[in-house]
Amino acid sequence: MRITRTGGGRGRRAAAVTTTVLTASALLLTGCSSDDGDDSNASDSNGNITLKLADFGQFGYKEAGLFDQYHKLHPNITVKEDTTSDEQVYYPKLLQQLNANSGLADVTGIEVGRIKEVVDTQAGKFADLSKSINVGDWVSWKEKQATAKDGTVIGAGTDIGPMSLCYRKDLFKQAGLPSDRDAVAKAVAGGWEDYLQLGEQYKQKAPSGTFFMDSASAMYNAVVSSSDQQYYDADGKAVYKDSESVKQGWNLAAEAASKKLSGGLAQFQDPWKAALRKGKIASMVCPAWMAAQISTESGDAYKGKWDITRAPGTAAANWGGSFLAVPKSGKHVKEAIELVKWLTAPEQQAAVFKAVGVFPSNKGAYELASVKTAKLPYFSDAPIGQIYADEAKSIPEAVLGPKDGVIKDTISTQINNMEQRGTKPDKAWKDATETIDKAIG
Fold it and tell me: Taking the chain, what is the end-to-end CA distance rounded to the nearest angstrom?
């Protein structure tokens, strides 16, 4: 599913990750500043070139110092990043550039909720990476998402969003709930139904002004993301109306809304940020990249009060992730491909994980000490390297569709309406399906 990065997306300040060992490459990393000037394809008489990398939200390369490091390894190459904070602004512009075959960066980021549409309609505009990267180095389902029917691979996987559950152990304790991460995992081991039951228990003794969860739409996304069939079938037909995972997620969200277990807070918007800052949220669906958001918005006052445990149930889930692609129209396609290969290699993905907390999709990173032993001090030293790696290896291969992002966003909006406006589930579903059918044709 698509990560909504409105207003900075994954967070402009990263959650600090600690490890028992620092790799040699991590010790070399320093920060660098990006330049939004249009220097794409720039070169001089001495063979010095500038590669422009366009992305959205926070990919973490600047924060990990990777552009400076790459310049040290390749003195004739300077990488400049052009970042758009909101992916929903970034993607339409990318489509316009692709259709015009003009204005494209040397390297461009593509969000997982868009990759199917790009693969189906724009694959010919991108360089084939299948001869440059070993697709087997990534978790099995990741590179398949960026592979066209003819076998060409248009994107190298960056991060993924293996699911966990973030919770305030102090609020859980005050409400008489288990607060140890193993005990919490056991309490929700039966699935998201158990999670709602825990929410009902929380509500009975909830500290004043707090909510069990931030958003029922976030829980909905987690439920759907754990299924191999979500919004489309293998033949490319939109089946969201009959999808079992969509039905389950919708019904659970409707239940959470009716029982007022949620704050009805649209994620990443100002009220959501304020609720975190004021310590009003007790638990949250937590793909790997969410930890940085929580620590950024909650601030130092709640350090050590948050913890992370495994997501409810036994089905692993992924929410989010992106790719790096190389447009054929660039003047330095060969150099751009080499940059993509380097940025998505295990050591660099591990460095980004250490810097901003987004989890690698390259399996080789999972065996590096900086990932394998990673803990988050903000979240009570939760062993996130272990939690996320175990999850990542068992996430089902989901069928993606060209309008996954549109469908997910529309349904999420109607779930918010149930929470915030009291819209009845039947009407909310009717409104969602009518909007979706108009959008996808």
Answer: 20
